Amino acid sequence: MKSILVAICALFLAASAHAQKEQPLPKDLPAYGPQNPLQAPDVKTVKLENGLTVWFVSRPGFPKVAFSISVDGGLAADPSDRPGLSELFAKVLGQGTTNRSAKQIAEEIQAAGGDLSILCTRDRTSVTTNVLSSKTDAALSVLADVLENASFPESEVAVAKKNASDKLRQNEAQPSFQANRALARVMFPGNPYSVVSPTQESLAQMTASDLRACRPNAGWRRCTPATGGWRCWSRS
Fold first, then answer.
1. N or C end of the chain: smaller count of CB under 10 Å?
2. pTM for the full model?
3. The CATH number of the domain where 153 resides is what?
């Protein structure tokens, strides 16, 4: 039996070695063509009256338009007693406005040929979508409504909190997650970058009012409690 196993192992190693041998290229391959220089896109920059900076990058012949709206202020700007507030904010931002329900937002963006993606990183929050160029006006109407009139319905906040709590529980069962959390605390002691996720306690304490405070009526901003009131990073 032992000799049979040895023979099988030898055959396996021989087959592997043969497969790993570099095979010569055919001799009749065409010559490489000239290498075309990289053509960087033409970028036009416009500063709007409301403080937003807009970058236009044209790609003629492509029948879609990509929108990406980003503002400063992400996980690192969360209040010390509300870690994960920005993440919850991003999850609920597109789930209803004073003019549209979550279903209407999804249906209108899909009718324009795209979908809405809202992402929160350590330093910024971004809202993006790709739609058909013929549906640009319709998509912009939805984006503007989401950014300016998000209502953060209590029911959607409750669902997002439950999902975030379940996800956190799953992550905490992973050694890699625990290692990353410990590493961040060692590398950035006392710094907002030391926080890589919410806690179950902070999720339980967050309310729809907390999320609405991140988006004052004067404009979309990231705000955190500070001595004497709120400290805000405006979209300018």
1. N
2. 0.73
3. 3.30.830.10
> Under a CB-based contact definition with an 8 Å cutoff, are residues 90 and 118 in contact?
yes
Count of domains for the chain: 1
Q: What is the rounded average pLDDT of the residues 218-234?
A: 36
Query: What is the span of the domain harbouring residue 123?
Result: 43-223
> Each residue of 17-52: pLDDT tens digit?
555 566 777 888 888 888 888 888 888 898 878 777
Tokens of 178: 């625990």
Tell whether 36 is covered by a domain.
no
**DSSP H or E segment with residue 103:** helix 102-111
Residue 16 has pLDDT above 70, yes or no: no
27 assigned to some structural domain: no
Neighbouring residues of 136: CB distance < 8 A, sequence distance ≥ 6: 65
Q: Is residue 33 part of a domain?
A: no
Strands 43-47 and 124-132 turn out to be unpaired
